[in-house]
Amino acid sequence: MTERLKKDWLLVLLIVTTPVFFWTILNFGDVVSRWLEIPSGLGQRKSLLFAPEAVGKILKMRRAQIDSNGPIFIFSKLVYNKAYIVLNELFGYTAYIKPRFYFQAGDSSALSPPNTNPAPFLLLPFWLYGILLSFKNKNHRLLLVWFASTLFAFIVGFRSFAILVPAIIVNFIFAYKALGEVKRRKVRLGLVIAIVFLGLFETARSIYLFF
Questions:
Q1: What is the four-CA torsion angle of 191, 193, 198, 199, rounded to 10 degrees?
Q2: Which parts of the chain are beta strand (E)?
Q3: Per-residue pLDDT tens for 93-130?
Q4: How far apart are CA 47 and CA 87, in angstroms?
Q5: CA 176, CA 171: separation in Å to the nearest integer?
Q6: Which contacts (CB < 8 Å, 24+ apart) does range 79-83 have?
Q7: Burial code of 106-128, b = ≥16 C-beta within 10 A, e = fewer?
Q8: If phi over 0 gives left and psi between -120 and 50 gives alpha, with beta otherwise, what is residue 170?
Q9: Phi, psi at 187, each rounded to 5°
Q10: Model confidence over 163-190: pLDDT tens digits?
């Protein structure tokens, strides 16, 4: 474990100098509470998904200016059904994987105070490149953890950093791997210093604004 930390000290440094890490540790009780709410949230999500209002909209779309006895209506029944509701909801999944959510906007909870970037925005291009590297190197395990974490949060209906902790950690790993691809040592060191400085600055700024 100690040897692994020595090897990946840069990854640890990138994580611990960010606002999202500071506020997650400070509000760890909220993280636990959020996870305990998952069963009730999942039940509520399911009931809302197929609520009478949602199904009623499907029926209206089926019958809009269509003869209820004609072939077009039969086709509309194939298009507008409960599967349509599910597919429509899946578009909401994109909100869980947007870069702006992780690097600028945050989730507006205690883990991400207003007017504070959860992580240095300078990490964004390295995060994107890290994802590309994972596809290129066929690092399916890392990609699977990221997609599974974001999809799980979407299914339970909690767009919260508390639930997305695994995805956030993987985000840092993506950026860390991309930084490792910078061959010139001085350039890499300069980038690390800039990212760490921005992380510490955002953390200090968030504490100042909060208190």
A1: 110
A2: none
A3: 888 999 999 999 898 888 888 888 999 999 999 999 99
A4: 16
A5: 9
A6: 82/50, 82/55, 82/58
A7: bbebbbbbeebbbbbebbbebbe
A8: alpha
A9: -65, -45
A10: 999 999 999 999 999 999 998 989 999 9
